[in-house]
UniProtKB/TrEMBL annotation, chain A:
<dbReference type="Pfam" id="PF02738">
    <property type="entry name" value="MoCoBD_1"/>
</dbReference>
<protein>
    <submittedName>
        <fullName>Xanthine dehydrogenase</fullName>
    </submittedName>
</protein>
<dbReference type="Pfam" id="PF20256">
    <property type="entry name" value="MoCoBD_2"/>
</dbReference>
<dbReference type="InterPro" id="IPR046867">
    <property type="entry name" value="AldOxase/xan_DH_MoCoBD2"/>
</dbReference>
<dbReference type="InterPro" id="IPR037165">
    <property type="entry name" value="AldOxase/xan_DH_Mopterin-bd_sf"/>
</dbReference>
<keyword id="KW-0500">Molybdenum</keyword>
<dbReference type="InterPro" id="IPR000674">
    <property type="entry name" value="Ald_Oxase/Xan_DH_a/b"/>
</dbReference>
<feature type="domain" description="Aldehyde oxidase/xanthine dehydrogenase a/b hammerhead">
    <location>
        <begin position="22"/>
        <end position="127"/>
    </location>
</feature>
<dbReference type="Pfam" id="PF01315">
    <property type="entry name" value="Ald_Xan_dh_C"/>
</dbReference>
TrEMBL record, chain B:
<dbReference type="InterPro" id="IPR016167">
    <property type="entry name" value="FAD-bd_PCMH_sub1"/>
</dbReference>
<keyword id="KW-0274">FAD</keyword>
<dbReference type="InterPro" id="IPR005107">
    <property type="entry name" value="CO_DH_flav_C"/>
</dbReference>
<dbReference type="InterPro" id="IPR002346">
    <property type="entry name" value="Mopterin_DH_FAD-bd"/>
</dbReference>
<protein>
    <submittedName>
        <fullName>FAD-binding molybdopterin dehydrogenase</fullName>
    </submittedName>
</protein>
<dbReference type="Pfam" id="PF00941">
    <property type="entry name" value="FAD_binding_5"/>
</dbReference>
<feature type="domain" description="FAD-binding PCMH-type">
    <location>
        <begin position="1"/>
        <end position="227"/>
    </location>
</feature>
<dbReference type="InterPro" id="IPR036318">
    <property type="entry name" value="FAD-bd_PCMH-like_sf"/>
</dbReference>
<dbReference type="InterPro" id="IPR016166">
    <property type="entry name" value="FAD-bd_PCMH"/>
</dbReference>
Length: 708, 337
């Protein structure tokens, strides 16, 4: 196909954009069901202990109530079914504040909410573990093998010889995902089978974990999730609310809708844990790193382990003969932490890239120059060659576009009125991976018009998966995008990976692309004509007069990928303005330059990157959840206390992509951009704040009190 | 939300009588605060008396003969309308700025002036029914005192409550020396000076203000002033919009050349009521308007602050914010009416 007729690489609009802005896109709670009942969860008000009495009599008598489900009458569920965070009403034990302890089902949402207030609970409290500052010294080696100490050379010994050192601890607070669409489910039983309408980043994962938890076979559970109102990791693994909706529907023998309230979102669907990260950098006088240690202390739930890998960036960003990456963890009575955008890398890069900035300052060296000086030839953690690595290009082209030369190297020297202006830079990275996925393509011809349906159990978080799959199929089949119908978000479709860890685009698009190649080959076999140029599937349907044809491809990552180290990389540039009186900081300009392989759609890609940047701005300046150590509750319990950025907090955002042809990670050369957009952002901003004010803030977020 | 009865009325007197009949009834104005509190099970009225149809929305000059004494704004007028009215923008730009610094455009379109005055604290222990809180449930203790009190008071708190009053509008009203007209049980109007309207918590934090049960706010009166050209509202918050104040300052300067005839300074985010910076005002009276004098006044004002465990920063921030507001006021009000 001629380049100009191709869809891939063009900034085309979302194919579902109109549906979304007209309210016709069906999110989980939009599914109508006859005779729907409404479920509302109620939660524990202690962090650790046992429920000794739970009085639901008043709630049961309340108007419209159909059932009150607690550990006393809940059906037996499989706690090891793969759902995250427990809270399945299987015992009177309470492990964290805000754990679900029951569900009210009623004719209306209001009646259920009211009745939930009428439940009276008595507890036998146990000593709770919630004060991270006190518990951190007790942290131990995690169970996860991938979190074992990673030692190369002798980081601790060699730093003693270093001419210049930075040894500092960086802290990041608990953050929440808070997607626009709170976690919601509609459950409809059909005999022994259940259909669950539920925003799911991993369709097949939601299916298997719900089935196992409900003691059903996977084929008895169908997940429907064509649209998702964001997830950021919190809809990657599924949580108790999914299955409790099914349980409620079974008990009242009616379809049931359960939507978490915004307030319940704080302690129902995981969170980004608090981290204390100690970074020790040692360098020669001319800025060559000789030692890098990244030691993370964090917390997990009392009954299971999740640790975000904060040391990942430090493994691969810089050349150093001596390196140490370690984790220590302490269980606490807090909900299980979970994958949160740029897991480990966003927080880890804050520590590493702040420390690099501190080192550059001590060396009296431009922070870009310091980074350029320490670029590794190969992946330092495993010696594998890079599939491609565009950090240098990101830094250099970004510096030019941003006007880096205007940066004053001494802090506090750029003042306009009552505002100090500063520039900061920081790099980031995220692995590029493809995962097994299958796709079916169905072609239909009427006359000279060929239409295609693409089927794959992919998910679209709102990022544009639907659109890039339509683009991929259009090019692969020789059709225009209007001729393509994309069907995703249904566990009855061919199984696929999830929209997690930036594997979505690579996994889904390669599956669709493989199916396009396969269907074209199969059609070619049917033809006895001779072609000088390889015909498209669409041309073959017409030339061979075929009405209907379909095929399925099961795509796997290429073997070659294993022998290489494949990652997306970026460089982030921030300009901040800090009011000298009030200490309020604003990011006035931000530029993210990313090398992420083939960019399928620059428009949706840009949205992904600047979306990540915006959360990064929140992470840097305002987002923080605080636990009251006396009870284990969140003292920040609404959007009035937990400050996500507003429009007014966001200055001018720009995203640039470095042209990168890299077919090693997968045939289409897609590296993924979902996660990398937030990596390095907070560090770039913190570094800009230092450049503006001379204040080095090592504990996020950088609120006004820290800058006055 | 608990079930409740919804009652309509069109006259103020009828509204008062309806409320009088049911000790568990509440007036409903814009509902932006009350309904949130009902959803959280903090407020539990069993009847809402909708007062939004009362004819109490006008904004007009108060005149004696041909002399204007000031401007009156209706108790049920919307915050947005008050902020944008020509009479207000021209004569009381400080009020416009303070209102626009609060909440979001959507909320200000719903929120009424009376409701704004009566909005309750944002203390998160007050909102969480599982927590102790003397304001919500007298006698249960104060959750914030030894808890997370970064947002809380540094002036005028008591052992019973350390909450701050969250309104931005009221901080400007305090500097503007407004008075609040309320209709009493007997249908008569009484007038309360804004600086006497809200209370310190003392031993009764459950009482935010001096209104008697059943009294209805009918209007707010703004007396004439001569600092419209030199007024500023500075609000410091954790993000640039849509957050409550860590500290805010409303300042107006009456100037004679470079000499300060009088200064009018009130603070938000520091106490259970708008905090008049009387010390700073006294120091500035008659002085020249210089940065040094601003600092002297600000430091004197903040010298008696009693911060809590998490809000020591508010003392320094208070000093800076007073200086910043005075500096801006001196430079001149930066928008045209
Ligand atoms: C997300 C959010 C952010 C906000 N941010 C800010 C902010 O930054 N700054 C700020 O100042 N405010 C802020 N607010 C508060 C907002 O200004 C108030 O909610 C609003 O002013 C209340 O007005 P209302 O008419 O909606 O009152 P309602 O909620 O209707 O009533 C509040 C109370 O006043 C009583 N009442 C109302 N009118 C009268 C009357 N005429 N006479 C007697 N009693 C009456 C009611 O019975 C009720 O008890 C915010 C609110 C929200 C929800
Ligand atoms: S500060 Fe006041 S409102 Fe907050 S918990 Fe204490 S008593 Fe309640």
């Amino acid at each position: 196909m001629e380049e100009k007729n191709k869809s891939i690489g063009k900034a085309v609009n979302r194919i579902d954009g109109i549906l979304k802005i007209t309210g016709k896109a069906t999110y989980a709670t939009d599914y109508p069901a006859k005779n729907m009942a409404y479920a509302v969860l109620f939660k524990s008000t202690i962090a650790s202990g046992t429920i000794t009495n739970i009085d639901v009599s008043e709630a049961e008598k309340s108007q419209g109530v159909l059932a009150v489900i607690t550990h006393k009458n809940a059906p037996k569920l499989n706690l090891k079914g793969g759902l995250r965070g427990g809270a399945l009403l299987q015992s009177p034990e309470v492990y964290f504040y805000g754990q679900h302890i029951g569900v009210v089902v009623a004719e209306t949402f209001e009646q259920a909410t009211h009745a939930a207030h009428l439940v009276k609970v008595e507890y036998q409290k146990k000593e709770e573990k919630i004060d991270f500052d006190k518990l951190a010294p007790l942290a131990v080696l995690p169970q996860g093998k991938e979190l074992a100490d990673l030692i190369r050379g002798d980081a601790k010994g060699s730093i003693k010889e270093a001419a210049v050192k930075v040894e500092e601890t960086y802290e990041t607070p608990i953050e929440h995902h808070h997607p626009m669409e709170p976690h919601s489910t509609v459950a409809v039983w059909e005999g022994e089978n259940v259909v669950l309408y539920n925003g799911s980043q991993v369709i097949n994962g939601a299916q298997t974990s719900a089935a196992a938890t409900l003691n059903l076979k996977p084929e008895q559970v169908r997940i429907i999730s064509p649209y998702i109102g964001g997830g950021f990791g919190s809809k990657g693994g599924q949580w108790a609310n999914l299955v409790l909706t099914a349980v409620a529907a079974k008990i009242v023998n009616r379809p049931v809708k359960l939507a978490l309230t915004r307030q319940q979102m704080f302690n129902s669907v995981g969170l980004r844990q608090r981290n204390k990260q100690k970074i020790s950098l040692g360098a020669t006088i001319d800025g060559k790193l000789i030692s890098l240690a990244h030691e993370t202390t964090t917390h997990t739930a009392v009954d299971s382990e999740y640790i975000e890998p904060c040391g990942d960036c430090s493994k691969i960003m810089y050349e150093t003969p001596n390196s140490l990456i370690s984790y220590r963890v302490v269980p606490m009575n807090i909900i299980l932490p979970t994958y949160t955008r740029g897991p480990g890398k966003s927080t880890g890069s804050f520590a590493l890239e702040s420390a690099m900035d501190e080192l550059a300052y001590k060396l009296n060296m431009d922070p870009i120059e310091l980074r350029l000086k320490n670029q590794p030839e190969k992946d330092p953690s495993n010696g594998k060659p890079w599939s491609s690595r565009k950090v240098i290009e990101c830094l250099k082209e970004g510096a030019k576009a941003f006007g880096w030369e205007k940066r004053k190297s001494k802090p506090g020297e750029n003042k306009i009125g009552n505002h100090l202006i500063g520039y900061g830079v920081a790099c980031g990275t995220y692995p590029a991976r493809q995962r097994d996925s299958s796709a079916v393509i169905k072609l239909n011809r009427s006359g000279n018009v060929v239409n295609a349906i693409v089927e794959i159990a992919a998910s679209d978080l709102g990022t544009g998966t639907n659109t890039i799959l339509a683009q991929t199929a259009a090019d692969g089949l020789g059709l225009s995008m209007e001729r393509i119908t994309v069907k995703i978000g249904d566990s009855n479709l061919p199984p696929a990976a999830g929209s997690v860890g930036s594997v979505g685009a690579a996994s889904f698009a390669n599956a669709v692309n493989d199916a396009c190649i396969k269907i074209t080959n199969e059609l070619l076999v049917k033809s006895n004509k001779k072609f000088f140029v390889r015909p498209t599937a669409s041309q073959l349907m017409i030339s061979e007069n075929i009405n209907d044809f379909e095929t399925r491809a099961d795509a796997k990552p290429p073997k070659e990928a294993e022998q290489h180290s494949a990652h997306s990389f970026n460089a982030n540039f921030a300009e901040v303005s800090v009011n000298v009186y009030t200490g309020m900081a604003k990011v006035t300009r931000f530029l993210a330059v990313t090398g992420a392989g083939k960019i399928l759609n620059p428009k949706t890609a840009r949205s992904q990157i600047i979306g990540g940047n915006i959360w990064g701005i929140g992470m840097a300046l305002s987002e923080e959840s605080i636990i009251d150590p006396r009870w284990g509750n969140f003292a920040t319990r609404s959007f009035g206390d937990y400050h996500v950025p507003t429009n007014f907090d966001i200055g001018k955002l720009d995203a640039m992509f470095i042209n990168e042809e890299d077919k090693i990670p997968n045939k289409m050369g897609i590296k993924g951009i979902g996660e990398v957009g937030i990596v390095g952002v907070a560090a770039a901003i913190a570094n800009a704040v230092f450049n503006a004010t001379g204040k080095r803030i090592r504990t996020l977020p950088i609120t006004p009190d820290k800058l006055i | 939300m608990r079930p409740f009865k919804f009652t309509n009325t069109t006259t103020s007197y009828a509204a008062i009588n309806l409320l009088d009949k049911n000790p568990n009834a509440s007036f409903l104005a814009g509902g932006t605060n009350l309904l949130d509190l009902m959803k959280e099970d903090v407020e539990r009225p069993d009847e809402l008396i909708d007062i939004t149809r009362l004819d109490l929305t006008s904004i007009s000059s108060i005149t004696t003969g041909t002399n204007s004494r000031g401007v009156s704004i209706g108790g049920l007028g919307k915050n947005t309308d008050a902020a944008n009215h020509q009479l207000i923008r021209k004569n009381y730009p400080l009020l416009t700025k303070a209102i626009l610094a609060g909440a979001s455009a959507q909320i200000r379109n719903m929120a009424t002036n009376g409701g704004n005055l009566l909005q309750r604290t944002r203390c998160s222990y007050f909102y969480d029914t599982a927590m102790p809180c003397n304001k919500r449930m007298p006698g249960t203790g104060c959750g914030a005192m030894d808890g997370f009190n970064r947002m809380h008071a540094i002036f005028g708190w008591s052992d019973n409550c350390v909450a701050v009053y969250p309104s931005d509008m009221a901080v400007a009203l305090s500097a503007l020396n407004a008075s609040i007209n309320v209709m009493q049980q007997d249908g008569k109007i009484r007038s309360i000076a804004i600086n006497d309207f809200h209370r310190l918590p003392e031993t009764h934090p459950e009482k935010d203000n001096v209104l008697n049960r059943g009294e209805l706010i009918t209007s707010i009166e703004l007396p004439k002033n001569n600092f419209a050209a030199h007024a500023a509202y500075v609000k410091v918050r954790d993000r640039n919009s849509y957050a409550f104040a860590l500290v805010s300052v409303a300042a107006g300067l009456v100037l004679d050349g470079n000499k300060i005839v009088s200064a009018h300074i009130s603070m938000g985010g520091v106490a259970h009521k708008p905090w008049q910076a009387l010390k700073a005002e006294a120091i500035l009276k008659g002085k020249t308007a210089t940065l040094t004098n601003f600092r002297l006044a600000a430091e004197a004002e903040m010298s008696e602050a009693k911060p809590l465990s998490h809000n020591k920063f508010k003392v320094g921030l208070g000093i800076n914010t007073i200086i910043s507001a005075l500096e801006m006021a001196l430079k001149g009000t930066d928008f045209k009416a």
